[in-house]
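[Archive record]
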Amino acid sequence: MPVDAIYLTEQLSKVQIVNEVNKDFVIEALRSIAELITYGDQHDPNFFEFFMEKQVMADFVRILKISKTLTISVQLLQTMSIMIQNLKNEHAIYYIFSNEHINYLITYTFDFRNEELLSYYISFLRAISGKLNKNTISLLVKTQNDEVISFPMYAEAIRFAFHEESMIRTAVRALTLNVYHVGDEGVNRFVTSRPHAEYFSNLVTFFAKQCLSLDKLVSDVSKRPSPEATSAILGAVDEIEDNLYYCSDVISAGIPDVGRLITGNMLKLLIFPLLLPSLVTEAVSETQIGAVTSLYLLCCILRIVKIKDLANTIAAALFCARETFVTIFGAKLNGYLSNHGTSKEYQPPDYDGSSTRPDFSPIHLGRDAVLRDNYIGSCMALREVLLSYVTTGDEVQVLGSLSVLATLLQTKELDESMLDALGILPQRKQHKKLLLQALVGEGSGEEQLFSPENSITRDGLNSEARQLNGGACLFAEALEALRH
């Protein structure tokens, strides 16, 4: 064993207090020991065995406790981050994570008013998360009756999930993804139980605030165009899309309860109270964002967040009038005012306190729309609003509406029945649907399929084909569609 390793551990164990006099030695000792541990992990197991015998992790914790200077905390976190990132041997990782030393460092009361310290702390947590698997994660959680009751790394990290510094937010998101992708059922139940499940509602609320900020930028640039304003909009768009891609990555972890939490919170905190009502440009006392911004955001959500229930519910909601959502979420919508002169902090809508929350399923939405016909009166459904933008709107509204319809058409998660109801089911798929109805003996399908008045037949067949037997030609075309 090298003399340096023996000397460093002996001298470090003799330190009783860390102050300005000896802090330089302690900092150098921490750095050197971490380098030797990393070297031993990759080249000489004897090094690592030696440091295990000397209980070096316990010494690290002790040094933190007796330290009186901020630089020691910073150096220790930096040292631990580098060491954990570079460990390859699972035996070494087990040692570092065992005996609650890591959890002590995680829950230690650091002074996070120091930005450098906070940055190293988050890097430390992220480094730990990079070594998680179904075996190592068990060393960082506490269980009771086979249920996870404490997971300090995750709980401490999500405290900073919405920090003003984007680098910190990014690191926390990377950490959460590492946790979700481990696939530990106990941990999955932990992150989707209260109060930790609030992270997902806070995520959507944070996203909603970004949407409001984007809309204000769009409004401002329309009044005072400038390169700086355009650049600010592009930056806001990047952040919004990054948020949605993060949600998509979370969903890809395959945790059913997480998918339901994201879907439910997006609907009740963002889409129903904020985006869909804003599609209507009729004069109202309070609208939260402009119609064009809402169209863009709906496109982004449908394009990036691949959740079947979310896509189908948005499509079903287009058959409802704006008043449907105002009725569900209250007569007045909280949040940003349309004149941009009196902005409020966005507040997610509250329920009336009843034990039963609104059902956001496509079927329920459709039923609610029918039940409310008595007082919705002549109000247009949102689908009709989109179509009115296409026919009578300005260039931006036309582009936005067509983009939403095109995105719906390209959304694989959307049921064909929804596309058909919206009137945007492609001709090839309409042929396929009518053919299947005819084959199973449904009269209406057979009549439509072979009817000479069928618009699909009129549009889809060329003049030469029309001279042939109409039914036979259409049948052949439908068979070809089935092959694709």
User: Anything to note?
Assistant: Residues 198-223 form the longest helix (26 residues). Strands lie at 142-144, 147-150. The chain is about 65% helix and 0% strand. The longest strand covers residues 147-150.
